[in-house]
UniProtKB/TrEMBL annotation:
GO biological-process terms attached to the record: negative regulation of DNA-templated transcription; response to antibiotic
Protein's name according to its UniProt entry: DNA-binding transcriptional regulator YhcF (GntR family)
Ranges where the HTH tetR-type domain occurs: 102-162
Species, as recorded: Streptomyces olivoverticillatus
Entry superkingdom: Bacteria
Length: 331
């Protein structure tokens, strides 16, 4: 409780406030790394989850951004969010300029994509986008109604960036595999995308629909029901997205801890090995002992995609077009 009898802010907000003050005062300058989650747990004596929430608050405010391979850093002065820019302006007796007259919907969308690519879906906010553009947050609403509509435009834009192969595979299996790999590559470039996609409440995207029409082109000739075609489409896209949702977590964890997945596993290998060698986990003991075992999100994607396509083979065989001009077969 505070002196006035009001409940104190939760720890993650107090930590965020302290880091915010360091940024505003210039103690943490543009481009400098802010304390990692591990450092925060040591300095403030809190759990890793609390440290992660504190950094997430600052990302949402646009005060910091995640840089792949570096960590979380303070925004550059020319892209600082309004809160920090206002503090600096007041200290120097300056008045901030109005909105950029060259601001367009496309520019807002592409900037939002760039912000999400670095800061993740949790770090995407109208304030962060405005900070990158050097305009007020309200200026964005002249071009997009709100964040939900902006996310839909972002998804449509990146799906529109997919370059379909000049020679499209004619066989259904080759076409589905090609489509899945195009989607996987898209999620690799934009890890946030998997978080915003939904199959029960789908985003309205003409470019995503066009990709799936291209995907299903060889299958339309088969004797499949409308329901079967829909479920094949969604099953394929759902599988790719299901693996891809891990990409953002992996990227943010590396930025926050400074450790790659391999480095993290190496740091805990002794502890994990001791547990597995206890005799209670023979399958994992065999896996750990085999130097040929290679596991990553990419290998999981490759393995799962092959099994999914294998599973569709029998259905596709049953639905092949009947030969034309042949007499009825007798038993």
């Amino acid at each position: 409780m505070t002196a006035l009898g009001q409940p104190a802010d939760p720890p993650y907000l107090r930590i965020a406030a302290e880091l915010r003050a360091r940024i505003a005062s210039g103690e943490l300058r543009a481009g400098e790394k802010v304390p990692s989650t591990r450092r925060i747990t040591q300095e403030w004596g809190v759990a890793m989850a609390t440290a992660t929430k504190a950094l997430a608050v600052l990302r949402q405010e646009g005060l910091v951004r995640a840089v792949p391979g570096v960590g979380t850093v303070v925004h550059a002065p020319d892209s600082a969010p309004e809160a920090v820019m206002a503090v600096r302006a007041r200290r120097h007796g300056k008045v901030q300029r109005g909105a950029d007259p060259s601001l367009t919907s496309e520019r807002v969308v592409r900037t939002a994509v760039a912000v999400a690519d670095v800061q993740g879906s949790e770090g995407l906010s109208m304030r962060a986008i405005a900070g990158e553009l050097g305009v007020s947050t309200m200026a964005l609403y002249r071009h997009v109604p709100g964040k939900a509509e902006l996310v839909e435009l972002m998804a449509d834009a990146v799906f529109g960036d997919i370059a379909l192969p000049a020679q499209a595979p004619a066989h259904w299996r080759g076409r589905l595999e090609a489509s899945a790999r195009l989607q996987w590559a898209l999620y690799r470039r934009h890890p946030w995308l998997a978080r915003v996609m939904s199959f029960t409440r789908p985003l309205i995207s003409s470019n995503a629909l066009a990709l799936m029409e291209w995907t299903m082109e060889p299958i339309r000739e088969l004797r499949l029901s409308a329901s079967e075609m829909l479920h094949i489409t969604v099953s394929l896209a759902g599988f790719v997205r299901g693996v891809a949702v891990n990409l953002e977590d992996e990227a943010l964890a590396e930025q926050d801890t400074g450790l790659t997945d391999d480095e993290w596993m190496e740091a805990r290998f002794e502890e994990l090995g001791a547990l597995i060698s206890s005799g209670h986990y023979p399958m994992y003991e065999r896996i750990l002992a085999d130097p040929e075992v290679d596991f990553s999100l990419d290998t999981m994607f490759d393995f799962g995609l092959a099994r999914l396509l294998d599973g569709l083979t029998e259905l596709m065989h049953e639905r092949r077009p009947r030969p034309v001009g042949r007499g009825r077969r007798t038993e």
